[in-house]
Design a protein that fits this description.
The complex is a heterodimer of chains A (108) and B (119).
Chain A (H helix, E strand, L loop, with lengths): L8 E4 L5 E6 L9 E5 L6 E4 L13 E6 L2 E6 L8 E9 L4 E4 L3 E5 L1
Chain B lengths: L2 E5 L2 E3 L5 E8 L8 E6 L6 E6 L6 E3 L7 E6 L4 E6 L8 E8 L6 E4 L3 E5 L2
Parallel strand pairs in B: 2-11
Antiparallel strand pairs in B: 1-3, 3-8, 4-5, 4-9, 5-6, 7-8, 9-10, 9-11
Classes of the chains: A mainly beta (108), B mainly beta (119).
Chain lengths: 108, 119
């Protein structure tokens, strides 16, 4: 079965750039969505279709997807970006959504 | 304003049943597919089930297939999840989620209702 692999944690200093990866077999052929979940809150999409940003999401959030890895990049990281981040794709064979295991972003 | 409000969670013994409801407002409910996504305490997101706008297309995760039934009532702007033969591993916060028509991502989430399965 198809699996999405994320690092459990990423740490970054304020003002620096955080990169969170999502690995999957030929994930570059799929559309990847990224969700941010802060403690006690429901997830919010921050990137859809690999690299598009919904209205209201800062330009500091960007995404890319190629080969076997999709990447969420957060530039000029702020304390408020500290959260869990999940990648998601639609599994083509079953048309079911699949989430990565999540990455906890810690701002040092 | 789009709102999704879940209800029906609680503490239930293994093997028993529970029915979750989701009241939707602020949008045309029967334009959208709706899904349930759950999150065990301290763990990640897991898709549970989804239903198309007209109930013609329904899907379940393997972990709940045969035990859970999703349904909707477009006249009442409501989504449901009937959960039977509950197991300890079904303990989670259950989110009602709207699927965006065009892009397919989950654009609105409820705040969740907690289901605890324990003897």
């Amino acid at each position: 079965s198809y699996v999405l692999t994320q690092p459990p944690s990423v740490s970054v200093a304020p003002g620096k750039t955080a990169r969170i990866t999502c690995g999957g077999n030929n994930i570059g052929s799929k559309s990847v969505h990224w969700y941010q979940q802060k403690p006690g809150q429901a997830p919010v999409v921050v990137i859809y279709y690999d690299s598009d940003r919904p209205s209201g999401i800062p330009e500091r959030f960007s995404g890319s997807n190629s080969g076997n890895t999709a990447t969420l990049t957060i530039s000029r990281v702020e304390a408020g970006d500290e959260a869990d981040y999940y990648c998601q794709v639609w599994h083509s064979s079953s048309d079911h959504p699949l989430f990565g295991g999540g990455t906890k972003l810690t701002v040092l | 304003e789009v709102q999704l409000v879940e209800s029906g969670g609680g503490l239930v013994q293994p093997g028993r049943s529970l029915r979750l409801s989701c009241a939707a407002s602020g949008f045309t409910f029967d334009d959208h597919a709706m899904h349930w996504v759950r999150q065990p305490p301290g763990k990640g997101l897991e898709w549970v089930s989804g239903i198309s706008w007209n109930s013609g297309d329904i899907g379940y995760a393997d972990s709940v297939k045969g035990r859970f039934t999703i349904s909707r009532d477009n006249a009442k702007n409501s989504l449901y999840l009937q959960m039977n033969s509950l197991r300890d591993e079904d303990t989670a916060l259950y989110y009602c989620v709207r699927k965006d028509i065009v892009t397919g991502y989950y654009d609105y989430w409820g705040q969740g209702t907690l289901v605890t399965v324990s003897s």
